[in-house]
Design a protein that fits this description.
single chain; mainly beta; Immunoglobulin-like; 8-stranded mixed β-sheet; 6-stranded mixed β-sheet; about 45% strand; elongated; cell membrane; glycoprotein; membrane; immunoglobulin domain
């Protein structure tokens, strides 16, 4: 029994057979051959590059060919490969003289070792697959080259700012790049937007040259109308170049400055160092007068001195400097500078003057000599005189202690404390580094002044025989006093450290009852008189050791006396127990 759908299957079989016959009769109905080729390939010069051409699908037999499209439009065949089974048979046809030559690898890819700028072409891959048809694809190869370091050649001449048109500033070169770089110009780091058409304010020109290597070099020249502000401006150029994958690079040139010619607009004239803030210079110093105009190149300077409204020319030079060696007070006065710039505007003041003020300070003079001797308790006035400019200030000091300002020093009721060195100092407040001093020594004549160190007894309030004591006498006067003692043994008089004019002497001795009665005297004397002091000791007690001996002697005497009395008493009482006992013991 037939299945229920058998009639339907019988009816469909002839239809399938008819479709098979139709497909066999029309080869175009088979799978069409297609190629996988990158449309654009980018590579750096000197690197190797591979151009891929891969048929899609499965084809047992096909022919692959590589063609080069040259500038004339012709398509010479470079290489071909035929697929036989699973192997590709490669044949090189025309290497076009390339070194290294073109190569085809085992997969039918075109290999270009060490890419050159001349390799920039359209490469066509053609695949013929028989019944599957023919396919064709084009790969464009771009070769990039980084240019050499950017060079700039500035104008070495002197450019005038008075020109009313643009002048050549510099030429910039970027060599051996691919594709051709672009050049931009900069002033003080800011890009200059200048046109390529001629313009009175500025423009630039460019020229591209293809070198023998096929690389491109670009030259750009900048033209600008200059201003005085450009005297300190820095200029440079930069080359911008392209790299694969849309990247970009930049190479900057070294910066440069221009030498400009512009007229003087301002003149300055001043006193160089050394000078004080108030403008004074010291007599004897070497002084420089400096004159500067702001024109370029440096103009000629005439330096002169005005005397009775007449110019006395002192120097003419291009530096604007006038040096005065060992300047004196007689060189004070009015000095001038004139800039000889004939391009300057009529309303520009090209001359300047200044007042040179020479400060001086003569040696000081005192109304007294180097040494002044005065009697004790007298008075005196010493004057200090000085000549200088500007007006000097005077001050008196003694041992660095200020005594007062002004030329006069008053000394009244002088004492020995007035002895010492007095200094008169003259200074110029507006010229701090200029000062002078003069001094004198005061010697006070008078009879000695005597001081003693008072002596005090020990803690119990009294002196004892044999106590040791040191007596000190101090004195001062002029001439220096002599110190003497009423007993021998005193030390020689010596100066006391830290007490000017004082001398002292000491005497060490033991206290006796005679000292208590008479005392010890110290005397200071010089040609003007003498002073005397007596040291008293009051009551002097005997020594502690002598009193103990006396008590002991009394005690021994009393003991002996009592012993004699006892013996006597015993003898008187012969019949007493005491004597009897002695007799009994004495009988054998």
């Amino acid at each position: 029994m037939e299945p229920p759908d058998a009639p339907a299957q019988a009816r469909g079989a002839p239809r399938l057979l008819l479709l098979a016959v139709l497909l066999a009769a029309h080869p175009d109905a088979q799978a069409e051959v297609r190629l996988s080729v990158p449309p654009l390939v980018e590579v750096m010069r000197g690197k190797s590059v591979i151009l891929d051409c891969t048929p899609t699908g499965t084809h047992d037999h096909y022919m692959l060919e590589w063609f080069l499209t040259d500038r004339s439009g012709a398509r010479p065949r470079l290489a071909s490969a035929e697929m036989q089974g699973s192997e590709l048979q490669v044949t090189m046809h025309d290497t076009r003289g390339r070194s290294p030559p073109y190569q085809l690898d085992s997969q039918g890819r075109l290999v270009l070792a060490e890419a050159q700028v001349g390799d920039e072409r359209d490469y066509v891959c053609v695949v013929r697959a028989g019944a599957a048809g023919t396919a064709e694809a084009t790969a464009r190869l771009n070769v990039f080259a980084k240019p050499e370091a950017t060079e700039v050649s500035p104008n070495k001449g002197t450019l005038s700012v008075m020109e009313d048109s643009a002048q050549e500033i510099a030429t910039c070169n970027s060599r051996n790049g691919n594709p051709a770089p672009k050049i931009t110009w900069y002033r003080n780091g800011q890009r200059l937007e200048v046109p390529v058409e001629m313009n009175p304010e500025g423009y630039m020109t460019s020229r591209t040259v293809r070198e023998a290597s096929g690389l491109l070099s670009l030259t750009s020249t900048l033209y600008l109308r200059l201003r005085k502000d450009d005297r300190d401006a820095s200029f440079h150029c930069a080359a911008h170049y392209s790299l694969p994958e849309g990247r970009h690079g930049r190479l900057d040139s070294p910066t440069f400055h221009l030498t400009l010619h512009y007229p003087t607009e301002h003149v300055q004239f001043w006193v160089g160092s050394p000078s004080t803030p108030a403008g004074w210079v010291r007599e004897g110093d070497t002084v420089q007068l400096l004159c500067r105009g702001d024109g370029s190149p440096s103009p000629e300077y005439t330096l002169f001195r005005l005397q009775d409204e007449q110019e006395e020319v002192l120097n003419v030079n291009l530096e604007g400097n006038l040096t005065l060696e060992g300047v004196t007070r007689g060189q004070s006065g009015t000095y001038g500078c004139r800039v000889e710039d004939y391009d300057a505007a009529d309303d520009v003041q090209l001359s300047k003057t200044l007042e040179l003020r020479v400060a001086y300070l003569d040696p000081l003079e005192l109304s007294e000599g180097k040494v002044l001797s005065l009697p004790l308790n007298s008075s005196a006035v010493v004057n200090c005189s000085v000549h200088g400019l500007p007006t000097p200030a005077l001050r008196w000091t003694k041992d660095s202690t200020p005594l007062g300002d002004g030329p006069m020093l008053s000394l009244s009721s002088i004492t020995f404390d007035s002895n010492g060195t007095y200094v008169c100092e003259a200074s110029l407040p507006t010229v701090p580094v200029l000062s002078r001093t003069q001094n004198f020594t005061l010697l006070v004549q008078g009879s000695p002044e005597l001081k003693t160190a008072e002596i005090e007894p020990k803690a119990d309030g009294s002196w004892r025989e044999g106590d040791e004591v040191t007596l000190i006498c101090s004195a001062r006067g002029h001439p220096d006093p002599k110190l003497s003692w009423s007993q021998l043994g005193g030390s020689p008089a010596e100066p006391i450290p830290g007490r000017q004019g004082w001398v002292s002497s000491s005497l060490t001795l033991k206290v006796t009852s005679a000292l208590s009665r008479d005392g010890i005297s110290c005397e200071a004397s010089n040609p003007h008189g003498n002073k005397r002091h007596v040291f008293h000791f009051g009551t002097v007690s005997p020594q502690t050791s002598q009193a103990g001996v006396a008590v002991m002697a009394v005690a021994v005497s009393v003991g002996l006396l009592l012993l004699v009395v006892a013996v006597f008493y015993c003898v008187r009482r012969k019949g007493g127990p005491c004597c009897r006992q002695r007799r009994e013991k004495g009988a054998p």
